[in-house]
Amino acid sequence: MQSSCETSSLQALVAQFATQRILAIGDLMLDEFIWGRVSRISPEAPVPVVEVTGESYYPGGAANVARNVREFTPAASVMGIAGADDHGRRLLGLLAASGIDTSAVQQDPAVPTTVKTRIVARHQQVVRVDRERKGPLPAALTETAMRLLDEAIGQIDAIVVADYGKGFLTQPLADYICHAAHAQNKILTVDPHPHTSLRWCGATAVKPNRMEAFLAAGLPPSDPVDPVLADAPLLQAGRRLMDAWETGSLLITLGEQGMLLLERGAPPYHTPTRAKEVFDVSGAGDTAIAVFTLGLAAGATPIQAAELANRASGIVVGKLGTATATAAELQAECAAP
Predict the structure, then answer these.
(1) pTM of the model as a whole
(2) CATH for 4-29+60-114+133-335?
(3) 3-class DSSP state of 259
(4) Which of 12, 57, 198, 315 qualifies as a FRET site for 5, CA 20 to 30 Å off?
């Protein structure tokens, strides 16, 4: 059971989230959910027939990171690119309706908006359909992103990067973000993508999941070990990434095993999962990196920030769809034994 001192400290940090100014950078997506029910199998193929009962749309990718940030502070902004299409207009409308600053979002007719459509029946995802364009963007769009970062960085406290491998983030832009954050003494956290091989040298913290950590470290994946602090291959991968990325902290999310935090000059720290029931893991990583960043910006130690991120993720996986945690929910979770 946690002490009252720990409880009050975490709750005080959550209260400070409201004053933080956070910029989310990365690949923007639109998450579409088609809800329905299954009553029969198709006569055309051995697949279920879904009778549609409703549709929902949410910001996805880096836009969902911004949405998670916005639950805790009014000063949430986002940088990326959306297509000049119906999906892009819907995405920007959702962000604006949530109170997220989209002035750093570019629109380009040549770049279709990334859309992930999930068909869900009886609380189970039946299939996911992806519509996307992969590959690096034209140099002019990257140059504009650099200019927009220069304009924004004086008015923010932290940058959180969400790389989904769709092409917005290139090595020149990654280098520019790292340099700008270091020069302006801003917190920089990164949720990396395992197949882009981008370097984030000097970031405050990087948050891969277990598989991403092994891939990025160039090591063969291994089965989880219990207890986590005895998982030698995982610790080796983490130490290799700490050196390669020259980052201050590494937060590895481990699903049902919780999270592992590595810091320079400190022993590894494991926080077990707080999830009570798991309905949908969609967006849990976005919640984790958003809350971890808010914690660091509010003055939390990396361990405190990891604890807050772990609690927020436990809240989100208990909800259906691309969900978020609220400040009230996180405060209550911090008070729970």
Answers:
(1) 0.93
(2) 3.40.1190.20
(3) strand
(4) 315
